[in-house]
Amino acid sequence: MSKVTSMHDAISDGVSDGDSIYLAGFTHLIPFATGHEIIRQEKRDLELIRATPDLIYDQLIAAGCARKATFSWAGNPGVGSLAAFRRAAEDGIPTDLELEEYTHFGLIAALDAGASNLPFAPLRGFIGSDLPEHNDNIARVESPFDDDYVYAVAPIQPDVAVIRAQRADEAGNAHLWGIQGEVKIAGLAADTVVLSVEDLCSEETIRSDPNRTVITSDDVDHVVHDPYGSHPSYAQGYYGRDNEAYIEWAEIASDVDRVEAWLDEWVYGVENRREYIEKLGAGRLLDLQPEHSYATPIDMGAYR
Amino acid sequence: MNYTKSELMVVAAARELENDDSVLVGIGKPNLACNVAKRTHAPDLKMVYESGTIGSNPSSPPLSIGDPVLASGAVSIEPMRNGFNYYLQAGRLNVGFLGGAQIDKYGNINSTVIGDYDDPDVRLPGSGGACEIAGHVDRTLMVTPHSERRFPESVDFITSPGFVDGREGRKELGLDGGPEAVITDLAVCRFDEHGEMYVDTLHPNASREEVRAETGWEIEFADDLGTTPEPNEEELRLIRENLDPDEMYTDQGE
């Protein structure tokens, strides 16, 4: 059964004010187009969960969509800090921002507990750190079997996860390659899943290479075909990271007026990702396109 | 040879790495250092990134720890959960590079807040992978400019444990390994039997007075205080021609 819809309809149906939401993808395949749609639809009081808030949550925070950020590394990767995140966390502009902070390992373990229906996940994490004193969802637990100990994290089960992949069939079986990050467990931990892809493909293509499947249709509620939906982050084999945009955002984000102007031009001023891409221009996208480098095909064998 | 402080820092970091190391790499100078090492004395060095790429062989300097050049040509790519679980936590990685806004005399690192956690003067990015990297590798390497602000006697917030309150303190927590070296623009510092940082070698042209002025406690100097070896021609050529031709992460000499 086809679950293909528009980003507009997926977000208006899937995301409500006050929801906790996880836009997945560790540096790779970040759902920027989804973030922009959430801003356009003026969703409010969201708990934004992401290991790396990255530019996309900086933009959502700047646009006034967030009440809380749950995260483990809030920087502009390779560039510096996230100015809008800091402005909200330090000065409450434009809204107060509650923080729930983890390490990467801790946050990923909490998602895993959520995806696995466990009351907590154990890890040798946080040891020697001051972080557990500031987060009630991190606790030391003693081993029931010897005198060892670990830390436990409470499960994270977002109301909505948005995950991206290179391709999926219309039912929502998705293939992802390159850095996998937390995409699978974010999808499995969440109540509602929006899947956005660079390409739609046949079910036959998915079944030809099942090891590459990151999530299956049973866990996916909406499928959106949204080429370049991760710009200015990247999609392995499709386009590289637009580093100029990351550097430029660092300057824009430090000035509230420039943030407003940027949101007006690049988010409110376009209807959808297609218009954003048209505005960006073919030249810029061509510069981001890698040469081809195909994996050697494998033989699954035709068994009778 | 004509070289700059930042080139010396990269090369000093590269020389900390051994051929059979598996290293958790960071972006910037650590990445350059690993690639210098791999192309000189440590060809078998295994580079692992917290994004889950195992055995990366980047064709150009990655822009972030999740860059596509780290995925293309890697030996394996693991979901993040597996990378932290099976590689870091289980002890398969023995060296890690970390940075931070503050490093104290026990090698504890703060990359979370300056000031009070609940009402910070400066909100920094936070741990990311750093806390567990610091906890689980045998040798933590830090590459950072030397300044009093960055080297307080104790950090405002422990994001990533060094020796905590001394070698015994770390051991009591059940952690092995610990900080190995801090490579600054003035010196290479190491840690004594109590887990306290001292100056092992001064860079050429750097003085004890400069180091004292830029360190937030009375730092000790090794009895046999040496001079940091200079970069050689091949190391400089790699940095300038192959690894950082656009001077993104180093200032370069002529």
What would you note in describing this structure?
The complex is a heterodimer of chains A (304) and B (254). Chain A has 304 residues and is α/β, with parallel strands linked by helices. Chain A has one domain: Glutaconate Coenzyme A-transferase, CATH 3.40.1080. Chain A contains eleven helices and 15 strands. In chain A, strands 1, 2, 3, 4, 7, 11, 12, 13, 14 and 15 form a ten-stranded mixed beta sheet that branches. In chain A, helix 2 runs parallel beside helix 3 and helix 3 crosses helix 4. The radius of gyration of chain A is 20 Å and the shape is globular. Chain A starts with a strand and ends in a 17-residue tail after the last helix. In chain A, 50% of the residues are buried. In chain B, helix 1 packs across helix 2. The termini of chain B are close together. Chain B has one domain: Glutaconate Coenzyme A-transferase. Chain B is built from eight helices and 14 strands. Chain B is α/β, with parallel strands linked by helices and 254 residues long. Chain B is globular and about 45 Å long. An eight-stranded mixed beta sheet of chain B has the order 2-1-5-10-11-12-13-14, with helices on both faces. A two-stranded antiparallel ribbon of chain B has the order 3-4. Chain B has a two-stranded antiparallel sheet with strand order 6-7. The chains are: A alpha/beta (304), B alpha/beta (254). At the A-B interface, helix 4, helix 5 and helix 6 of A face helix 3, helix 4, strand 9 and helix 5 of B.
